[in-house]
Amino acid sequence: MRHTPILHSVSYAGVWPGQARLSLDAFLDKAAELGFAGVMLMAKRPHLSVLDYSLEACARLRETVEAKDLAVRVIAGYNNFTADLEHGDVPHREIQIQHITELARMARALGAGVVRIFTGYETALAGQAAAWQILVDAIRECARRASDLGVVIGVQNHHDLACGCESLADLIESVNEPNCRAIFDAWAPALQGADIVAAARRLAPLTCHTTVADYQLRPRYRYQPSLVNYEPQTPSVRAVPMGDGFIDYRAFLAALGEGGYDGPVAYEMCSPLAGGGETANLDRCARRFLEWMAR
Q1: Which DSSP string corresponds to 71-107?
Q2: Angle of helix 24-34 versus helix 55-67 axis, rounded to 10
Q3: Which of 13, 76, 134, 166 sits a CA distance of 20 to 30 A from 176?
Q4: pLDDT at 1 over 60
Q5: Residue 141 near residue 177 (C-beta atoms within 8 A)
Q6: What domains, with CATH codes, occur in the chain?
């Protein structure tokens, strides 16, 4: 079993302070130059926005990608199904479902089999049961519409709702559509203090993709003058080159493989990274990931 290493275009999108920003064409050149076999494309500006790429433009982009010996494996959507609940007159869920349907059309034109989506953030405007039903209904409709296009909807364990291992499995099973799968990443359960090997074994049969990034924890404290002491705070995280962090990715990927997952592994640099965001450091970390995968 060998997972194909691919590169997420968010890594060169300028989304965090100091990060180099490449156009989509320049990113594709970079991915080919670095030696990646495929890419995961960020579905918003400055990369693959629905406002800038018609289906005809996607077909031309596919030719460009294949000419570089690359393949588009995943389209990375950005959504929040529990957003703007305070304005019930705005069809926010419908707007997002239509957006994701457009991404599925683009994915088919590009030869990509998966559209990545998020769930939703917790909000005081909806209780647990109501928010859960919003997710199930919206994702089910996305999956059914994408099914007509031969595209899988991959739910990433990113936003507040269903970010835990068991709750993500519950969500996929509640949606109950064959083309609704998990995009299960290790960093979330690792930061939550969960057993990432057990989590990978649980989610492997439901997983269609995984994305990796390594982190180190940085303790934080707040000074209490009256006590002449420090109060511990939630640690911050610092992105570091693959293998320098605390996440045991070897065990995680092995457990996914044992559970039957043999798909691609995407690398992303989507938050401030040790060494900075200049192109040279991004390139160094991307190459480090390829070396790590080869080992």
Answers
A1: -EEEEE----TTTTTT-TTS-HHHHHHHHHHHHHHHH
A2: 20
A3: 76
A4: no
A5: no
A6: 5-213+242-294 (3.20.20.150)
